[in-house]
Amino acid sequence: MSTTNADTETETLTDGFHLIIDALKLNDINTIYGVPGIPITDFGRYAQAAGMRVLSFRHEQHAGYAAAIAGYLTQKPGICLTVSAPGFLNGLTALAHATTNCFPMILISGSSEREIVDLQQGDYEEMDQLAIAKGLCKDAYRILHAEDIGIGIARAIRAAVSGRPGGVYLDLPAKLFGQVMNAHAGANSLVKVIDPAPRQLPAPEAVTRALNELKNAKRPLIILGKGAAYAQADADIRAFVEKSGIPYLPMSMAKGLLPDTHPLSAGAARSLALKESDVVVMIGARLNWLLSHGKGKSWGTTPKRFIHIDIEPREMDSNVEIVAPLVGDIGSCVSALLSGLGDNWSAPPADWTSALREKVETNVARMAPKLRNNNVPMDYHGALGALRTIIKERPDAILVNEGANTLDFARSIIDMYQPRKRLDVGTWGVMGIGMGTAIAAAVETGKPVLAIEGDSAFGFSGMEIETICRYNLPVCVVVFNNNGIYRGTDVNPSGGPDAATTVFVKDARYDRMMEAFGGVGVYATTPDDLTRAVNEAMDSGRPTLINAVIDEKAGTESGRIGNLNPQSVVSKK
User: Fold this and answer.
1) 30: Cα within 13 Å, side-chain hemisphere
2) What is the β-pairing status of strands 2-4 and 10-15?
3) What is the mean pLDDT of residues 24-53?
4) Inter-axis angle of helices 380-393 and 405-413, nearest 10
5) What is the pLDDT of residue 9?
6) How far apart are CA 50 and CA 20, in angstroms?
7) Residue 7 above 70 pLDDT?
8) What residues have CB less than 8 Å from 502, skipping those under 6 apart?
């Protein structure tokens, strides 16, 4: 824009809208996930006009999940854009999810003006959003002046990706968008972030300490977490595993860093590996509840000595003693360990690796007939056995997975062959990540996406299939429909007319929802039906939803974590 002063000299101007867009594009951020509305509606229009990809969702939470997984896949902060107050609050779950899972993300929300908020004068959607967000993310910032937009966005980017990545909140009051300044000065105020996530090298003595532990180990084990996948140090991680000869156990989103069929994979012998190992190397994984906090029955009676790689020093000794902490970024730490192995490294004792391999082969052979069954209605094994073959034939596809039984069975049944191809619920086990994650996976990678959903989990984000159809994304959604949460067989214990708390409408036709938005809907009752429908969807690239009918008696309470459900010991008559 331009204006003319009293001396008829023309001054070129810019405003907050365009400075924000320019600052993001300067830092190679070209995609925004969000929901339009006051005060950010025009911002979305201007961003789209400037060549950015702006994807509008039906709910902010799912836009946030999309931004979070975009950060995980790209190592750049995914951007979620929301309106003020309610929209901001809808985005907070995704922001906290990103922080907990160490995904770089920036939640940008419009807000009410500070002078009204601070005096609590009742502005439209008035809320002190910055104060609310601070406890749920790595950092939170507010930009009040147009000349600070460049530095504010730079700080948010650096905070999101440096050290242990996470979520950042950026508060933009409505007045900021319309603020005007000289365009040349505005351009000079923008900041290109240099080396936002610098390498952090481990101390040489820490590397030596870790290698000495491994040299003395009789039954070593490597555990790979999603942080190892995020690091994109794939070649060095694979080389370290293969050169050391140490068996590895991948957590769910680390599957595919090495193929699950690799001879050193202990995934199908998880219980034996955890219980009998003596030295455990943690790479991008934390000893939280997903690993029973490093103690208890899951870990057996064999004393454990832990080597832990993490960029955050405070993670060490969080649950158990870490005898060899390696503080630094995963790529640098693994590279240092690999170099330290030298040419005379001795592989672990053959009795250890052979015992694990034998257990893997026994468990795989025992499972095979279950995966080939043709029961009607389908059970989880028969349905997932069919999808397992499809992923084997299409290793480049992205697998999104959520649910209770649907998640638990799938992560142990479906083998992965490439890194960052399995995306699921993460550390908190959040239900509802499915459609947002599937959308971002398709957008960020350009690859076909197969989303395997429990019917309960699908219900959290099902309306986003309209978003999938609107943008014509190559996403195939398979809903495992067993008529309820865990199972569809519960009854109301009072004998009243209401359905049991875990039961849904019987024989719901989710496939017709997809048809209503112009996508392809398929009703599948057999593994052959499922195989045929998924292959057709993946070949065509058309938005597809397959309603896969699962035996309503097949599920178990809370999947495999039913032990976390408290049980009443009081009987009321």
Assistant:
1) 8
2) antiparallel
3) 97
4) 50
5) 58
6) 11
7) no
8) 484, 485, 486, 487, 490
Residue-level length of the chain: 573
**Other Cβ atoms within 10 Å of 40 Cβ, number:** 26
Average pLDDT over residues 182-204: 98
The model's pLDDT over 446-456, given as tens digits with 9 standing for 90+, comes to 999 999 999 99
Angle of helix 380-393 relative to helix 350-371, nearest 10 degrees, comes to 110
Question: How many angstroms separate the Cα of 387 from the Cα of each of 483, 528, 563?
Answer: 21, 10, 28
Q: How many other CB atoms are there within 10 angstroms of residue 396's CB atom?
A: 11
- Structure token pair of residue 158: 């650096």
| Dist. CA 556–CA 486, nearest whole Å | 6
Number of C-beta neighbours around residue 395 at 10 A: 13
pLDDT of residue 159: 98
State the number of CA atoms in the 13 A half-sphere of 287 facing the CB: 27
Question: How high is the pLDDT of residue 3?
Answer: 57
Look up residue 570 and give its two tokens.
Answer: 């009081």
Cα 478 to Cα 258, 474, 534, 547, 564, distances in angstroms: 26, 13, 8, 6, 28
521 phi/psi in degrees, rounded to 5: -110, 135
Which pTM value belongs to this model? 0.96
Average pLDDT over residues 327-355: 96
- Contacts (Cβ under 8 Å, ≥6 apart) of 150: 19, 23, 189, 190, 191
Buried b (16+ CB within 10 A) or exposed e, 99-133: bbbbbbbbbbbbbbbeeebeeeeebebbbebbeeb
Ordered domains of the chain (ranges, CATH): 2-189 (3.40.50.970), 204-358 (3.40.50.1220), 372-549 (3.40.50.970)
- Alpha-carbon gap, residue 435 to 445, rounded angstroms: 15
Q: At what angle do helices 234-244 and 330-341 cross, to 10 degrees?
A: 30
The secondary structure element, H or E, covering residue 491 is none
- Distance between CA atoms of 223 and 247, rounded to whole angstroms? 9
At 287-297, the pLDDT tens digits run 999 999 999 99
The DSSP code sequence of 352-405 is HHHHHHHHHHHHHHHHHHHHT---SSB-HHHHHHHHHHHHHH-TTSEEEEESSH
pLDDT of 366 higher than 60: yes
Tokens of 383: 């349905």
Per-residue pLDDT at 4 exceeds 60: no
Closest CA to 341 of 211, 505, 462: 211
Q: What average pLDDT does this structure show over 151-155? A: 98
